[in-house]
Amino acid sequence: MTTSNETGSIKFQCNWIQTDPLKEEVITEINHWRNILFNNKLIGVYPNGIGYGNISIRLTDKEFLISGTSTGHLENLSTNHYSTVIDYNFSKNELTCKGQIKASAESLTHAAVYEMDLRTQAIIHIHNKQMWDKLLNQIPTTSSNVEYGTPQMALEIKRLFNTTDLLEKKVLVMGGHEEGIISFGENLKEAGDLILRYL
Asked: Which DSSP symbol is given to 133?
């Protein structure tokens, strides 16, 4: 279940527990922001069919709700399209999730941000080439040698928290994942507004 090319594929060992769909009220706010991002083409699908972008909210210290893998092409997400990450291990490159769908390929990256800042309650990962070009190395930026969705990316996130003003900026560029940008905040509005301001 690992791959080395950028196809949106899951690069970690995914332990998936199929459960009943979530309740509608659980996804109301996250879906609202996901729709805004989709309508601005910050989450979506490339002409070659590869989807991009994802969004999550913290549920407990270690658990979070995240859009499912390969959902970028969908205009509207339902309760079937979100997954709950219930455990992860960076060193073993594995993650456990539950729901009707496997968690996003970026789940370990989200986990790293949540782990580094307990105040963070929401994370958004978008793609935008113009914004990426403008912000690359101007704000905290991960190494160009590190691919998305890997334990190395999680370590890069931690490095940025420890050596840059990322905690203040709350936005980072994924140097090795062209177009990839992550924002985070104490709620979805803070994380979403940050992205829209840069846009």
From this structure: H
Q: Is residue 8 part of a domain?
A: no
- Pick from 122, 118, 124: nearest CA to 187: 122
Determine phi and psi for 61, rounding to 5 degrees: -55, -40
Asked whether residue 8 carries a pLDDT value surpassing 90, the answer given is no
- Cα 31 to the center of its chain, rounded Å: 14
3-class DSSP state for residue 56?
strand
- Quickly state the pLDDT bin for 75 (edges 50, 70, 90): very high
What are the strands, taking DSSP E only, across the chain?
13-18, 44-45, 51-52, 54-58, 64-67, 82-89, 94-99, 122-127, 171-173, 180-185
**Domain harbouring 170, CATH code:** 3.40.225.10
CB atoms within 10 A of CB 60: 8
45 is in which domain, residue-wise? 13-198
> Which of 139, 148, 138 lies closest to 180, judged by CA?
148
- Residue 57: strand pairing partners: 65, 122
Mean pLDDT, residues 139-163 taken together:
94
Rounded distance between C-alpha atoms, residue 3 and residue 148, angstroms? 11
